[in-house]
Design goal:
By secondary structure, this protein is an alpha/beta fold. The chain is built from 7 helices and 13 strands. The strands form 3 sheets. It has a 5-stranded parallel sheet with strand order 2-1-3-4-5, sandwiched between helices. The protein has a 5-stranded antiparallel sheet with strand order 9-8-11-12-13. The C terminus is likely disordered.
Length: 313
């Protein structure tokens, strides 16, 4: 399962962290938070709390950093660099080349803009960052936002409140969440089985078909590269329902490889797209077929594009 490490100061953001964890779990993702007893944070024997956090960062697929009003205490007295735990976690995520998503409270960004306008002074008291001990928070944001010659991302998103933050997370983690949902549906046997086949030809029209097994497929559509349009087949709500796709070509010979796209909606409300590839041998009879990919498109709104030749992102 896709894991997301959530990094921030803890005591001032305990409610936000709890909401973020619940939101990520609701999206089908594994949320890793050091302060939540039921999260997927793993305790490491014979390692202190800081090293344990860094181990969990390295094991994660994504890294979420939430910057608000506090920087956190320096770890220098514990034998680490003169940075906070959150800052060290960010550095570790960079070293592991994790996908990093940074979310900045809008009031912090306002102070950050003012601090830059004043040529980044060593002393600063803003409307949000008032304590001099939290000045490194502005430097951390500046370090991340700085454009350099490396290929690391310097993007960040601003949020006003926890509702806004969760909306940003939904947008940024849409694809990992869809992938996680697809894995869950597959493991639980909640997807119909689509079995495409080659039916034959008449002149330069080649016919492909398919059957739906072990489930119900609603709003079935197919598309071949030749037509560029989605063809609707309706609801195949009974076992072993068939659909037929006509593929017309200019010559009497089918291309060496041919792809057939099939979309359908499950009874659970999920929209699926499969891509099947046929490779033909002699006499234009496909000798091999395989599935190229299966992806979850989202909700049923994707199936309202019957006349579109575009493949959704």
């Amino acid at each position: 399962m896709t894991s997301v490490f959530v990094s921030s100061t803890v005591y001032d953001l305990v409610d936000v962290r709890a909401e973020v964890r619940a939101h990520l779990v609701g999206m089908g993702l594994k949320a890793v938070l050091s302060d939540h007893p039921t999260s997927d944070f793993s305790k490491v024997p014979d390692a202190n709390s800081i090293e344990t956090c860094l181990v969990n960062v390295r094991r994660s697929d994504y890294f979420v950093l939430i910057l608000d009003q506090r920087y956190g205490h320096s770890l220098q007295s514990a034998g680490f660099a003169d940075v906070s735990a959150t800052h060290l976690e960010l550095q570790t995520a960079r070293e592991k080349n994790l996908s990093i998503h940074v979310y900045v409270r809008d009031r912090l960004e306002a102070d950050y803009g003012l601090w830059k306008k004043q040529d980044r002074p060593d002393t600063f008291s803003g409307a949000w960052v008032k304590d001099s001990r939290d000045l490194p928070l502005l430097r951390l944001l500046d370090e991340h936002a700085r454009l350099d010659t490396s290929d690391r991302s310097n993007w960040y998103s601003t949020f006003r409140d926890s509702v806004d933050l969760k909306e940003q997370l939904s947008k940024d983690f849409k694809q990992p969440a869809l992938h996680a949902r697809l894995l869950t549906l597959t493991r639980c046997g909640q997807l119909p089985v689509v079995r495409p086949y080659y039916e034959g030809r008449a002149g330069n029209v080649f016919k492909f078909g398919g059957q739906i097994f072990e489930g119900v497929a609603l709003a079935v559509q197919t598309r071949s590269p030749a037509s560029g349009r989605w063809q609707a087949h309706g609801d195949l709500s009974n076992q072993r329902q068939n659909f037929v796709v006509k593929h017309e070509v200019a010559s009497l010979q089918l291309p060496m490889t041919f792809q057939l796209f099939v979309r359908y909606e499950t009874v659970w409300g999920d929209s699926i797209e499969d891509c099947y590839q046929f490779t033909h041998g002699s006499d234009d009879i496909p000798s091999e077929q395989r599935i190229v990919y299966r992806q979850l498109l989202g909700d049923a709104s994707y199936l309202n594009t019957v006349d579109s030749g575009e493949k959704p992102a």
